[in-house]
Specification:
Blueprint lengths: L2 E3 L5 E3 L7 E3 L2 H9 L6 E4 L7 H6 L1 E2 L1 E2 L2 E2 L1 H7 L3 E5 L5 H8 L4 E4 L4 H15 L2 H21 L5 E6 L5 E2 L6 H8 L2 E3 L9 E2 L1 H6 L4 E5 L7 H8 L6 E5 L1 H5 L8 H12 L3
Parallel strand pairs: 3-4, 3-8, 4-5, 8-9, 10-12, 10-14, 14-15
Antiparallel strand pairs: 1-2, 6-7, 11-13
Helix pairs in contact: 5-6, 6-11
C-alpha cells in the first residue's frame, strides 16, 4: 500500500487513487479543478470561491476554521486536503482519526511547487501537476529577469482594528520579495499587530492594503493617507499574494503590472 509523507512529516496510506476528495483550503480547491479532478472533488469550504461553478454545485462543509465534522463524515471522503495554517489543528486531528488527511505547509514558492507535485502524486495527476509546476516556475523566472535590483520598502496589511501585517516567515512575504519589495516587518513572525507609529518608524514607501481577509477599500486609503504623508498606498489583490495553488500562474503577470505601475521595472 503506497505511503505518502506530507509537508508536516505526517504519513498517510492510500490503497487506491482517491475518488472522493474534500478540500478545506480555497487555493488548493482551485488547484484540484486545474488538475481536472471535477468528479473526484465532492466537498469544499464556503470560502472556496474558485471556480465559481464548484462553489455553487459542490457540498460546502463549513468555513476553513469551522468545519462541520459530521457533514464530512457523511460524505465519506477517502482523502481530505487541509493546511497547517488555514485550518484548526484540533479539527484536523479529529478528522484524521477517521479519514486520510493530507496536511500542507506552504511558506514560499518552492514549497508551493512541491505541494502541487505532491497533490498530483496523491490523485493520479502526476503529469498534469508537473507541467503546472514547471509553467509556474518559468513565469516566476521571467518575472525575476524583468525586475531590477531596486527594492522598495513596503508593508502589507491584512487586517484592520487592529492593523495586522505579515512577518518574514509567511508566503506573502515571499511573494512581496518576488515583486521587488522589502518587507518592512520581515524581522517579525507570522501576523503581528502594528500601529501607525510603527509604519512611520519603518519609513515605508509603499503600503499594500489586501483585499482579503479584511476587504480594504478606497476609503481606507483615504483614511491612511492622511496619517502617512509621503507613503504611497494602494489596494492589492490578496489572492495573488496569498493563494499558493494554480493561481500562481497569474501572479507573475499581476506582479509585473504592479511593478510597472510603480515604475520600478
Amino acid at each position: 500500500m503506497p505511503v505518502f509523507t506530507d509537508q508536516t512529516g505526517r504519513t498517510i496510506s492510500l490503497p487506491y487513487i482517491p475518488h472522493r476528495i474534500i478540500s478545506l483550503v480555497p487555493s488548493q480547491t482551485e488547484l484540484l479543478h486545474c488538475l481536472g479532478l471535477e468528479e473526484e472533488t465532492i466537498g469544499i469550504t464556503k470560502f472556496c470561491v474558485h471556480p465559481k461553478e464548484w462553489f455553487h454545485k459542490k457540498t460546502r462543509v463549513g468555513g476553513t476554521k469551522t468545519i462541520n465534522i459530521n457533514l464530512v463524515h457523511q460524505l465519506q471522503p477517502d482523502l481530505i486536503i487541509a493546511n497547517k495554517e488555514e485550518n484548526v489543528k484540533e479539527q484536523v486531528e479529529e478528522l484524521a482519526r477517521d479519514h486520510s488527511v493530507w496536511l500542507t505547509d506552504v511558506n514560499n514558492l518552492e514549497e508551493a511547487l512541491q505541494m502541487i507535485k505532491d497533490i498530483g502524486d496523491l490523485t493520479g495527476k502526476e503529469k498534469e501537476a508537473a507541467v503546472l509546476a514547471d509553467e509556474i516556475n518559468t513565469r516566476f523566472e521571467l518575472l525575476s529577469r524583468q525586475t531590477t535590483n531596486l527594492k522598495l520598502q513596503a508593508a502589507y496589511l491584512i487586517w484592520r482594528d487592529p492593523y495586522m501585517t505579515v512577518g518574514g516567515d509567511t508566503f506573502i512575504n515571499d511573494m512581496m520579495d518576488k515583486c521587488g519589495f522589502i518587507n518592512a516587518f520581515g524581522s517579525k513572525e507570522r501576523y503581528p499587530e502594528i500601529n501607525i507609529a510603527e509604519l512611520k518608524t519603518q519609513n515605508c514607501k509603499l503600503l499594500l492594503l489586501s483585499s482579503e481577509p479584511y476587504p480594504f477599500k478606497q476609503k481606507h486609503i483615504d483614511e491612511l493617507s492622511a496619517q502617512l504623508p509621503g507613503c504611497k498606498i494602494i489596494l492589492a489583490d490578496g489572492e495573488m499574494f496569498s493563494w499558493y495553488g494554480s493561481r500562481l500562474l497569474l501572479a507573475p503577470g499581476y506582479f509585473h503590472e504592479l511593478q510597472s505601475s510603480l515604475r520600478i521595472t
